[in-house]
Amino acid sequence: MKILHYALGFPPERTGGLVKYSLDLMKEQVGQGHEVVMVFPGRVSFLKKEPYFKFGKRQNIPYAELVNSLPLPLIGNIKNPQDFMKHTDPKIFVNLLESEKPDVIHIHTLMGLYGEFLEEAKKHNIKIVFTTHDYFGISPHPKMYLAGHDFVDDKKYDIWNNIRPYGSKTIKLRISQLSIYPVLRTLVKKLKKSSTLVDDLPEQVGWSTEIDSGFQELKKYYLSMLKCVDIVHFNSSVSKKVYEQFLPLMTWKTVTLSISSNNIEKFGKISLFAKPIESIAYIGPYNKEKGFFEFLKFAAEFISKDSNNKAFIMGDNGTIQISGINNLGTYNKQSLINNLKLIDLVILPSKWHETFGLIALEALSTGTKVAVLKTMGVSDVVPEEMRSSTVKTIDIETIAKSNFNICILPMSSHEEQIMKIYVD
Fold this sequence. Notes:
The chain has about 425 residues and is an alpha/beta fold. It contains twelve helices and 20 strands.
């Protein structure tokens, strides 16, 4: 089968779970003998204004880099919505589709994508599959979470009418599409201090009900793109619930299917045994939306209960020091495995309706217990006793006394499930 993926691109220019998953899936498909091409929003050309494709191959994956794509809100929010819904000559996409002749197009994000691409794919009767890695498209912010406020649960205020004051000029957002961006990002991270540990700011209140016509037009633009989709692959029941809440009239076919990763240590049946919990850990960016501050409060209470209790944080390169908590910093696959040997329970207290949370599977696959909030998609996978409504209600004693068995599918099995979606 010939599969054309649209994703964010390759490391080091692009990072994160979407990038990792899409590349793992493509590599597995290539290994199974399928033809794969990745289209991704690429660099900005200072010599030519119109979009065009630059072809090549990286990590054994043929690619078509969309130079001069629409802007990418990767390092800030949208401020000027008109810049994100510009039209272009569809001929560039007609030429790509007629030269590549894909059997299916798998969309992993709408960021940077011109509506004409999907419109032409529909005209060519090519099946379009969309995986819900985040909420960009039904929200101008991928997490639908802004200034400490979760708009998923908000029946009164529309995030589209409230994001403009938090937006960045488009020229700033374009920085992520410069060839030197990975270097700039590394420099910024090295200079980053403990600003994330400023006293937890209160949630923003007093949102507006006034219609922002520019952003409502952008909302319609993305809706027209989503209407071109044939099948939606929800990566969790959480993402399915949110999408159907905000798009109740959509008539597309849907499949709910947990995702996988090549970063997972062990597959198949994983046994999690009863044992005292004397060490807990947080894994992820040290920010509010991931529930970092809630973990710090929980950890302080946990440490105070017993002199043997310890708490760890990892996943961020912020040079921070917190009394009584060990900062393990960033990690790779091997250092994660080594770090988890020190830990009895990982706590993932994400405050947004996270569509999945691959790090939970990666930790579970080492035999480490993981407690998650019910608003995280990965809660589909973990046992009920390890799901909580809030961080405060995590029951460590019950988790410690319990034995659990879970099953984690390898990427090869997940790839087979995805291929079935393509031919459905």
